[in-house]
Each structure stands twice: as C-alpha cells, then as structure tokens.
Design goal:
Helix content is 38%, strand content 12%. The protein has helices at residues 2-19, 31-43, 59-72, 83-93, 102-121, 164-174; strands at residues 23-26, 48-52, 76-79, 126-128, 145-148, 153-156, 227-229. Bound molecules: iron/sulfur cluster (SF4).
C-alpha cells in the first residue's frame, strides 16, 4: 500500500511543479476522487479543483462536496451546463431523454458533462483524474500520463494502478469524507437518474446506464477518447 501512495504523491508533485497554475483536477467526489483530493491537499495544493455540476446529481454528492470544502479549505470551482443547451434538449426531447436512445443519452452527457469540462480545461495544460485501470475494460489501456486527444491536453491519472481495496484502505486510514451512496452498494456514482445500486457479483460499473449495456459497462465520454500513452 505505501509504495502506491508514495508513487501517486510523487506524480502529483511532479505534475504541480511542471504545470501549475494551469492544471486542474476534475473531481466527481466518488471514492477515487475524494482519495485523490485528500492526496492533493497534502502535497500539491496549487492544483485547481473543479467539479462538473450536471444539474442532475444526487443530494449525497452535494453533501460530500460540502464536507470536502470544510475538511480541506480549498476552493472548488463548479462548472454548469449552458442554460440554453439544457433548455433546448428538454424542450425537444423532455427531461428524461436519456432513456429513449443511446444517441439521446450521449447528447445529454455531451451537454451536461463534456461541454462544461471543455470550458474547465480551456487554457489549461493538464488535467488530473481519479480513474483506475481495473474499473472497466475500456480503461485497461490507460496509463499514468497520457495525451488526451479529445481535449488536446495532458491527462494524468495518479491512481491508475490502485485497486478498489487500496482506495478504501486509504479512505478508512485517513478518515476521508465519502459519498454515503457507496454504503448503499453504489460503487460508481454519476447523475441520479443514471445511477443505481448493484447486486453482489455485478460489474462495479453495471449501475451506470444499465438499460443500454450489452457488455455490462458503459462510459459517459469523459474518459473514452483515444489517448497516446506516455508511460
Ligand atoms: Fe444526462 Fe444521465 Fe449523462 Fe447525467 S449521466 S448527463 S443525466 S445522460
């Protein structure tokens, strides 16, 4: 466990030294992201913390966001979808368009997540994520340092080698605030209408967009872009 933490902190310090103040951590306040936030608070506090508020998040996510604000005393910049874009999709397809087709679900994610992230990353040199390789088959090829071609920016994943047990061991050992939904069998948490609890033995991401999955795993597009591996 200790070498994993040391390696992640070394990578954070290296990234801060190279890219601050033009480096952001896009934090969703899931278990991995509160772990990374805690690490940043300890060793790389000039990294800018941002979050994407889709307007459809569960109350428990706002609660852990508040707990982190109090715990770490670091500003958290919230990026919202453009009102005109949300008004357009709701007017044309209703508030639950994501149930109607994969295309409409991806349009909703594009407007509520991708566009705000694009604004959050504009003018930056690097962004940090809490993704882990074992989370999904689509993340198997991800590396600690990549070039994200979708956003044309350096992408750094300090927890890429961590296991789920590593994450929870860290959270318990450091009393890190975490989303209460994790205790109700939600290993992966996104928007409220697109996230459900999973059963024992299900893929950890099976609770995301479960109605459209054939292989048990779906992605929102934030981490699905082609990347060039650096290490
Ligand atoms: Fe829309 Fe669901 Fe994607 Fe959230 S997760 S942006 S509600 S489709």
């Amino acid at each position: 466990m200790q070498p994993t933490i040391d390696a992640s902190m070394a990578l954070l310090q290296q990234a801060e030294a190279e890219f601050a103040p033009d480096i952001v951590f896009a934090c969703s306040f899931g278990a991995e992201d509160v772990t990374l936030l805690d690490l940043i608070s300890r060793c790389a506090r000039s990294i800018v913390i941002v979050t994407l508020d889709t307007g459809r998040l569960p109350q428990q996510t706002y609660d852990v966001m508040d707990a982190c604000r109090a715990r770490y005393g670091m500003p958290i910049e919230a990026y919202f979808p453009a009102a005109a874009e949300v008004e357009f999709i709701v007017r044309e397809a209703g508030p639950n368009l994501f149930r109607e087709s994969v295309e409409k679900r991806k349009l909703c994610c594009e407007i509520r997540k991708i566009h705000p992230l694009r604004r959050a990353l504009a003018g930056r040199k690097a962004w940090l994520t809490g993704v882990r390789r074992e989370q999904a088959g689509s993340r198997q090829q991800m590396a600690a340092i990549e070039h994200d071609e979708q956003f044309d920016i350096k992408k750094i994943n300090p927890l890429i080698e961590w296991s789920e047990a590593d994450v929870w061991s860290y959270i318990r050992a450091h009393d890190v605030p975490y989303n209460a939904l994790h205790d109700a069998h939600y290993p992966s948490i996104g928007c409220a209408p697109c996230t459900r609890a999973i059963a024992v033995g299900e893929n950890p991401r099976a609770g995301r967009w479960w109605w459209e999955q054939e292989d048990g795993v779906a992605e929102c597009g934030l981490h699905a872009s082609p990347v060039k591996r650096k290490s």
